[in-house]
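Notes from the 1:1 (GR / supervisor)

We went over the backlog. Supervisor wanted to see one worked example end to end before approving the batch request, so GR pasted a single chain during the call. The sequence is below; no edits were made to it. Supervisor asked that the structure be written out right there so they could see what the output format looks like.
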Amino acid sequence: MSSQAPTQRITAPQIKARKGARPIVSLTAYHAAMAAVADCYCDFLLVGDSLGMVVYSMETTVGVTLELMVAHGKAVVKGSKKALVVVDMPFGTYEEGPEQAFRNAVHIMKETGCGALKLEGGSWLAPTVHFFVERGIPVMGHVGLTPQRIHTLGGFKIQGRERITAKTIETDALEIEAAGAFAILIEGVVENLAARLTRGLKVPTIGIGASGTCDGQILVMEDMLGLSKPVPKFVRKYAAMAEMIESAFKTYADDVKTRKFPGEMEMYR
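Structure output shown during the call:
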């Protein structure tokens, strides 16, 4: 019998306590195998609704369903051991009000075993965040460029360039924090706004396309591995996985064509 203690997952309160301390490392994850590899390097893994675009070639995240998030959330939780797993609530599952949102949130958490949920939105969402937190569901906020509202934003554009827009984003972040969010993801905003939000908020900020001034960073795993095309301009390409995979496929195809396989007896020795 092993005396080794099971690995303890990082919790939402532990992420919150990292404000202003060691930078928070995070990535998106959609599959058990990739989650298992990233797990020991990340403080949290986000099962983002970006999977609609990355995995299913959707034009936006709007078409992602609750069932898809649950299926991928289960996989990431099973594949990881240490990192906090945060699951996105998809478009249409929380906008009607706190009660509708809570029912869907409970379904996600029970089915996946995740440790927190992420919701996109500002001041209008604060009552729902408060409702969740009071009832035991940790919430990560998401302000700035909010992809679920891409049709009203007019595309994937940098936010906060105009003073009035920047002020709105700042108010959104402060109200989501006051409602009880343990961290706030800031996407696609100008650097000076990201820096101001990080200074002004008491909870950690997690940046994506928002400069290195935040308390932590997150990237879409496929982007940083060089699997996505095109890769957003702000993403550093840490590997050329598309080329490596293509080379492996070509070698495999060549082996099949030339029958370079072990014999039956050799395979099962």
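Supervisor's comment: The chain has a mean pLDDT of 92.
Batch request approved.
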